[in-house]
Design a protein that fits this description.
Largest sheet: 2 strands, antiparallel
Number of strands: 6
Number of helices: 21
Helix content: 55-70%
Low-confidence stretches: 35-44, 482-509
Strand content: under 5%
Length: 556
């Protein structure tokens, strides 16, 4: 920890939330004619577009730097205390405040969001999806970042709802305008599901605010539901959980996710899986658990049942996509795997124990790192082969990555074993802790039922290992094909979602191995996956005191 004054911490958090919005406005400003006289540094593309892409890297880099400094200045001796707080009256008639702050629960999510957005901006500088203006692309990514960061930083229920909704429009356009095949249908499905869920969630938030007399999340969490009747809590949790479950996504409200991921550009999939899905589970932990504990207690067994159903369903869907002849899309398979992984997060939350909730928070971070890396890798495969179809990649003209692009194949195998929860990597701790939470749930919850849920979840880990190892075998192994596919030249048009990579490496077996800009983008995710797996106390030391206080109603 470094010694930073409270006022500086305040400004840092305010900049982290508002900085991307300022950058989005700057990205859309017209470029002075004098700046267009010289070609871009790489000699390619419209100089105004290259300037916008560089601006995206600069802004997201500045936000990441601010997030790192905020984390270094965070008082780790008191992680359960809200720090870097700002509280300004915004709408006095409704008692709505611009109330910002961070604790051990939200800080890791802020840093994860800033990191993934920066890596996506850096990746897009060299590998921009085919579509309309790059300036609009950069602006949308920055608005998306601002909304996500605000969701994790705000401490007012209505402001939380606004930030929660703020991310929908930029993600809709990223899918609809820069996506691949069937992008319009996928974008509409995404927006309809999430908006309808959010409308129901708003009713629950308003019910809490009206009945308790405040929208302040810290005050409500400290009160721990004592100002709300049992019926009010049940109704509020039912409404709020509906909106959060769609965004998580929880089975059976997940069906928008595979379509959205399949159609989205690479960076869209990374941001959708890496940070946007975390907004739903964060809402369960920050709002439902401490503000309406009796209502959450009532629905916890049902939430756990849906969670383990999602674990099994997601794994079976992935196995069906991975088998020979299924014409399974690799991006779609990873999307279904997210349904299963987020099921573990929901199971940990449903246990309503410190162990389970800490596991849920750890699994959130691990999923963001590992699945973000997986979507980057699948995007790289699609760049090189023009398809993410498993039968094509594993057929007579297949990838055989270990022989043709060994570094790319090694990274894909690493991400796969991390995703299946190999001990020593980040994915292990979250899943293990959530199952420990289910093994001994909170008082009043049926232990036999939760032991059954834990057993089903444990079986789901075996299925997860099965489909991920099958993907590695089919894509990474095999002999060299008789006819080599062409490398980056064999890319489909913009409608199919192909992207235009720049930079290069020595071709291996007809395709390029990992490029320099890909190394820069993926290395932080690999390093953090190993660090979190070998040193979980770095994260758990932040989350555990905050979770203990959250579940105790502010008394811990």
């Amino acid at each position: 920890m470094i010694d930073i004054s409270a006022s500086v911490m305040q400004y840092l958090l305010a900049f982290i939330v508002a900085g991307p919005l300022i950058g989005a406005v700057a990205a859309l400003l017209p470029v002075r004619p004098s700046s267009l006289r010289h070609p871009s540094a790489d000699g390619e593309g419209n100089p105004a577009d290259r300037t916008a892409l560089r601006l995206g890297v600069i802004v997201t880099g500045a936000v990441l730097l601010a997030a790192v400094v905020l984390a270094l200045g965070f008082d780790r001796d008191h992680p359960s205390t809200m720090q870097a707080t700002t509280d300004i009256s915004w709408i006095p008639a409704l008692d709505v405040h611009i109330h910002l702050g961070t604790d051990g629960i939200s800080l890791p999510l802020l840093v994860l969001t800033a990191l993934l957005t920066f890596l996506c901006a850096l990746y897009s500088c060299f590998n921009l999806p085919a579509g309309p203006s790059p300036k609009a692309f950069v602006a949308l990514v920055l608005v998306l970042e601002s909304g996500t960061l605000a969701t994790f930083a705000v401490l007012d229920l209505l402001l939380f709802f606004l930030a929660f909704e703020m991310v929908l429009i930029p993600m809709y356009f990223l899918i609809a305008r820069w996506g691949g095949a069937r992008k319009q249908a996928a974008a509409w499905k995404f927006i309809l599901y999430t908006v309808l869920g959010s409308v129901v969630m708003l009713l629950g938030l308003l019910l809490i605010g009206v009945k308790s007399g405040t929208f302040d999340m810290v005050t409500l969490a400290t009160d721990n539901g004592r100002g709300l009747t049992h019926t009010t809590q049940v109704l509020a949790v039912l409404a709020i959980a509906a909106g959060l479950a769609v965004k998580t996504p929880m089975w059976p409200l997940h069906s928008w996710l595979p379509d959205a991921h399949t159609a989205a550009p690479t960076v869209g999939s990374v941001l959708l899986a890496g940070v946007m899905l975390k907004m739903g589970t964060y809402g369960f932990i920050r709002i439902a658990l401490p503000i309406a504990p009796e209502g959450m207690h009532t629905f916890a067994p049902y939430l756990a049942a849906f969670a383990v159903a999602g674990i099994i369903y997601g794994s079976l869907a992935c196995l069906a996509l991975a088998k020979r002849g299924a014409r399974g899309d690799l991006k779609r398979l990873i999307a279904y795997s997210s349904v299963g992984h987020m099921g573990f997060v929901l199971l940990g939350i449903a246990s309503m124990t410190p162990t389970g909730v800490n596991g849920a928070l750890f699994a959130n971070i691990a999923h963001g790192l590992i699945t973000g890396l997986l979507f980057f890798l699948v995007g790289a495969l699609k760049d090189r082969y023009g398809t993410a179809d498993l039968d094509t990649l594993a057929g007579a003209t297949g990838a055989a990555l270990y022989g043709r692009a060994p570094r790319l194949g090694g990274l894909l195998a690493f991400a796969a074993v991390a995703s299946l929860g190999l001990p020593g990597l980040a994915g292990f701790w979250g899943e293990m802790l959530t199952m420990f939470g289910a093994f001994d749930p909170a008082r009043g919850l049926s232990r036999p039922a939760f032991l059954t849920f834990m057993s089903v979840a444990a079986f789901g880990t075996l299925l997860t290992a099965g489909y991920l190892l099958l993907v590695v075998r089919r894509v990474c192994m095999g002999g060299a094909p008789q006819e080599q596919l062409q490398g980056p030249e064999r890319r489909a048009d913009g409608e199919s979602g192909a992207e235009t990579p720049q930079g290069g490496a020595t071709p291996v077996g007809g395709i390029q191995d990992v490029r320099t800009y890909e190394v820069m983008t993926w290395t932080p995710l690999v390093a953090l996956t190993v660090l979190a797996g070998l040193w979980p106390a770095v994260l758990l030391g932040l989350t555990d005191p905050a979770v203990q206080k959250l579940l105790a109603g502010g008394k811990a």
